[in-house]
Design brief:
255 residues, alpha/beta, eight-stranded parallel beta barrel, 11 helices, 42% helix, binds 2-phosphoglycolic acid
Length: 255
């Protein structure tokens, strides 16, 4: 295992938080705090905040992403936003398959796969979320669940496009709950996902794929989680809404 073969990526997932004015304020506070980061820094924000976020971060090392996109390019899909629309704004990143989309909005492994392919066809980099429910962990099927979600999401994704895939392992029981997977649990499942990538695409691509941990990662636990060989970054919810906390996670990832 060689962590040096892949990028460390710290991404905020703002979820349904912040107005455009508040987004500008938060990002303006973050910019000086993360400017020397030795990792990629991304903020994924609500659709209505995207333009304000792009404007506020222009010329800085903070990249902006969306939190989802539809699989069709356009059409009668009220309230959805397509990958070409995101691309046209100048975005580079999009989260797909977040557990809140799966849990509350009927997202399935199949629709996740469709959205992943739509995003890739526009040249966007995808932060693909996978993770098990608490019952599944207790039933001993974490490895199977995460492998299945990863395989279906990546169906028909080419080897070449894997350079545009970041995977976020997010155990559902750890999201927004204050419960964090232990560093060893995070490392184990990120390693299982890496083996799935190796089976599908070969060892070289598996070694080059960034696999983040997400689920109550904060400025207190980030350093230990990020020290693990298979944990290449974090997808941060709550702690990404406070500039100083997010910056301390970026600092931990830059060590
Ligand atoms: P959390 O959210 O850090 O608030 O647990 C993580 C996520 O849902 O991406």
């Amino acid at each position: 295992m060689n962590k040096a073969t892949r990028k460390t990526v710290i991404a905020g997932n703002w979820k349904m938080n912040k107005t455009p004015a508040e987004a500008t304020e938060l990002l303006t506070a973050m910019i000086p705090l993360v400017k020397d980061a030795d990792c990629d820094v991304i903020a994924c924000v609500p659709y209505v905040d995207l333009q304000a976020a792009l404007d506020a971060t222009k010329g800085t090392n903070i990249k902006i992403g969306a939190e989802n996109c539809h699989w069709e390019k356009s059409g009668a899909y009220t309230a959805e936003v397509s990958a070409p629309m995101l691309k046209a704004m100048g975005l580079e990143y999009v989260i797909i398959g977040h557990s809140e989309r799966r849990q509350y909005f009927g997202e399935t492994d199949v629709t996740v796969n469709k959205r992943v392919k739509a995003a890739l066809s526009e040249g966007l980099t995808v932060i693909l979320c996978v993770g098990e429910y608490l019952e599944q962990r207790e039933q001993g099927v974490t490895a199977e669940v995460c492998a299945m979600q990863t395989k279906i999401a990546l169906k028909d994704v080419s080897k070449e496009d894997m350079s545009k895939i970041i995977i976020a392992y997010e155990p559902v029981w750890a999201i927004g709950t204050g419960l964090t997977a232990t560093a060893d649990q995070a490392d184990e499942v990120c390693g299982i996902i890496r083996n799935v990538i190796a089976d599908l695409y070969g060892a070289e691509i598996a070694e080059a794929t960034t696999i983040q941990y997400g689920g109550s990662m904060n400025d207190g636990n980030a350093e230990e989680l990020l020290s693990k060989v298979n944990v290449d970054g974090g997808l941060i919810g709550g702690a990404s809404l406070v500039a100083e906390k997010f910056a301390r996670i970026v600092e931990a990832a830059s060590k």
